[in-house]
Amino acid sequence: MPICPICKRDVKRVLSCEHTNDEDVCVECYQEIHYKITKRG
Ligand SMILES: [Zn+2]
Ligand SMILES: [Zn+2]
Asked: Measured in angstroms, how far is the CA atom of residue 36 from the centroid of ligand 2?
């Protein structure tokens, strides 16, 4: 299983996009990153 580089947990599914610097992160971290982005401003 892949390991999320942010929370260091084993995860079944990973996601990546430009906001994660193209790193594969878990769904929770992925959502947190985008939550911060949408809340900014
Ligand atoms: Zn994570
Ligand atoms: Zn994104």
From this structure: 11
